[in-house]
Structure formats: C-alpha cells, structure tokens
Amino acid sequence: MNRKICVITGSRSEYGLLRLVMQEIKDSSDLTLQIIATGMHLSPDFGLTFKEIEEDGFQIDRKVETLIGDDSPLGIADSMSKGLVGCAKAFNELNPNLIVVLGDRYEIAVAVLSALVAKIPVAHIHGGELTVGAFDDALRHSITKMSHLHFVAAEEYKKRVIQLGEDPERVFLVGGLGVDNINKLALLNKNELEDSLNLTFQEKSLLITFHPVTLENANSTFQMKELLNALSDLENTTLIFTLPNADTGGLELIQTITDFVSNHPNAYAYASLGQIKYLSCIQHVDGVIGNSSSGLTEVPSFNKGTINIGGRQMGRLQASSVINCDPSFPNIKSALKKLYSREFNSKLQSAVNPYGEGGACLKIVKYIREISLEAIVKKEFYDLPNKIPRYKQND
C-alpha cells in the first residue's frame, strides 16, 4: 500500500530541519508526500517563506492561513483557532495515512489537535526536549501526548517521552535532524555568501537570532535592547541578524532590530536566510549569539562558540561550546569577551554535539515506511516500572 505522508510546516527553521525528510519521502516509490504550509510561511512580515519550499521543488498541497498581524495573547489565540479549523479542512480533503510534525510551535500543536479529532496517526520529531523559558515547552509535551510515533534526538529525550507515558516501542532515538543538514548540504564559501547577502565580512563577524521570551518576567524588548547595546560599540565586526519568530511580542522585536540596523552600517537583518545561507553563515562567522535552539543543536557541529542568552533554552542538552549568560548588558559583554578569548577558542575543536553525528533523516523515513499503522491511534498510558503508588494506604 502506498502511504500518504502529510508533512506540516509553519516556520523557516522547522522547514529547514524537515527538508531532507520531505525529499526522502518524495523520492520513495512506496510513499506519497503531502505538504501543508501554515504559520509564518504565509506572512509577508516573515518573508513569505512558502516560496522557498516551492523553489526547492516541492508542491504545497494546502496553505492554511493563521497569522492575523496581531501577536498579542488574544491575537495568538485567534491565530490558533484559525489553524485548528484550517487544518481540519485540509485533513478532510487530503485524507493522509500519517502526519509528520516537528517541534513545539502553537500552529503545529493545533494541527495535531485537529489530527487527534480526525483519528489520524501523528509522528512527532524532536520531542522530549526542554525549553523552560518559553510556552513552547508545554506545547511540545502536549504534542507528544497527541502523537503515536516519536523520533527523538538524544537518550535523555527518549527517557522523557517514555516518562510522559508513551510506549517505549514507539519511541526511536534517531539523533538531531540539523546535523544531517550540516553533513549533506553544500554550503557557500565566504565570497559566495558575501555576494548572496550583499555584504562584506569585516575582521570579526557574529550571527544573531533572538526570539521572544514568552514565559519570563523580563520584557523581551528590554532584553533585546540590552543585547543591542552590548553589540553597538563592537569595532570591525559584521553583525548578521535573522529576525525573530511570530510569538507574543515578535513584531516589536523586529522593529527594534530594524531600527538598530538602520543606524549601524555594519549590521544587516534578514527575514529568512534559508537553510543553506544560514548554515553557511555559521561556518564563516566567529560565533552565534541569541536564544535560538540552533545555537545548541547545530552550531557545536561547526566547532564554533554560542552565547546563549537568558532562560529560553534552559533545559536543553548543551555542548562545551555554549556560553550561558543573563540577558543584561554587563553579562553579555562578559560573554563576548569569553567568546573571543584564546582559552575558550583553544577548546572548541574538542566540543562534541550532544545531538549526534547525523543519519536521522534516513532512520525516520525507514520507520515511517515500515511500522504498522493499524490500530495505532488507540493508545494506552505506559506506566514506568516500579512506579510510586499514586495514593498511600493507611497502616
């Protein structure tokens, strides 16, 4: 039987990770690829990145509009309601055998909720991870509970998915998809990258991505301004910004970055670099700064340093190449000094990426092809052996 595999993607970063999986499904004679694009992919504010999907040779089967230009809590809830209904209609028309999703964003959570009601099995990639500084953490675990196959990036994450009550026989340790991209994609040399970005690298260079901190008391814009103040007086340094995502407060951060770039000729901002340009930037810059998961999951494979700001990624596995700092001017300045220190750089070559050495893509598609989907939707909660009794009986 030819299985219809529906991949749902809502953002540039998650599509970058899913791209090789999608290509492998597309090239398989016994699988049919379906694609639903939603979320930031369809927004002019975030670069209309659905075009990148089409430029890569994929056919988008359905576009589900969600964003309404309002990133307030009420606006996000409105977006989620649109996504819920839109995905339900798309599933009814496409009738997939299996849905594949990655990560933890709200547009993915509502897509999976639609699949739950429609009794369509879901395969979830990169579950079991922690990001306690963002509401993505709760969304990720919710997606896990609504999914039926789990492809995780590390042993610790596998244990956590099982701890959430998922059957160990349906939890597969495959490694991180970002490492596959690093191993397989042909990256640009420095001259090619400069031409494609229309910039010239100065003596030093940094790649910056800072997303909203949705569960921290400190205002995201205040934290961003602390970061920008720390970057503003760097000499002979090219600053490359990738714009933040569509979480609460994201549009204000975009405006803050845009204002900074307009007043600093050494700074450049891009709504979307695409995976090849983004990874090429990592390859050629001195280090990465911000609070993106990429700084922890992909950058270590380049033996480059990451300055991880604040608590957004707190809980993720980290390589020795990661420098954690509070989101304040003096702490960020101190982290920058360490990033360029001789002692820190001397240890970068020995850094080991905890997300593996590659091969996740082929493993995922192999399982998708071979695992029986019969009666998979009906799940039982898996209790851990030697569990603590829920209630203590009186003596």
Account of the protein in words:
There is one protein chain. The protein is α/β, with parallel strands linked by helices and 395 residues long. It has 2 domains: 3-174 and 359-370, 3-Layer(aba) Sandwich (Rossmann fold), CATH 3.40.50.2000; 187-350, 3-Layer(aba) Sandwich (Rossmann fold). 41% of the residues lie in helices and 16% in strands. It has 15 helices and 13 strands. The protein has helices spanning 12-26, 50-55, 73-94, 106-118, 136-146, 155-163, 177-184, 190-197, 220-232, 250-262, 274-284, 294-297, 329-339, 342-347, 360-370, and strands spanning 3-9, 31-38, 62-64, 98-102, 122-125, 149-152, 171-173, 204-209, 237-242, 267-270, 287-290, 305-309, 322-325. It has a 7-stranded parallel β-sheet, with helices on both faces. Strands 10-9-8-11-12-13 form a 6-stranded parallel β-sheet, with helices on both faces. β4 (98-102), α4 (106-118) and β5 (122-125) form a beta-alpha-beta unit. The radius of gyration is 21 Å and the shape is globular. It starts with a strand and ends in a 25-residue tail after the last helix. Mean pLDDT is 91; it is low at 391-395.
When the domains are counted, the total is 2
The CATH superfamily title of the largest domain: Glycogen Phosphorylase B
Content-based structural category: alpha/beta
Query: Measured on Cα atoms, how large is the radius of gyration?
Result: 21 Å
- In the predicted model, the low-confidence regions spanning at least 5 consecutive residues are 391-395
How many strands, what sense, and barrel or not for the largest sheet? 7 strands, parallel
Q: What is the number of helical segments per DSSP (H or I, 4+ residues)? A: 15
Q: What is the CATH topology of the largest domain?
A: Rossmann fold
Which class of the largest domain in CATH terms?
Alpha Beta
What is the name of the CATH architecture of the largest domain? 3-Layer(aba) Sandwich
Helix content: 40-55%
Morphology: globular
Q: Strands of the biggest beta sheet: in what spatial order? A: 3-2-1-4-5-6-7
Strand content: 15-25%
* Order of secondary-structure elements: EHEHEHEHEHEHEHHEHEHEHEHEEHHH
Mean model confidence by pLDDT: 91
What is the terminal-to-terminal distance? 58 Å
Give me the count of strands.
Answer: 13
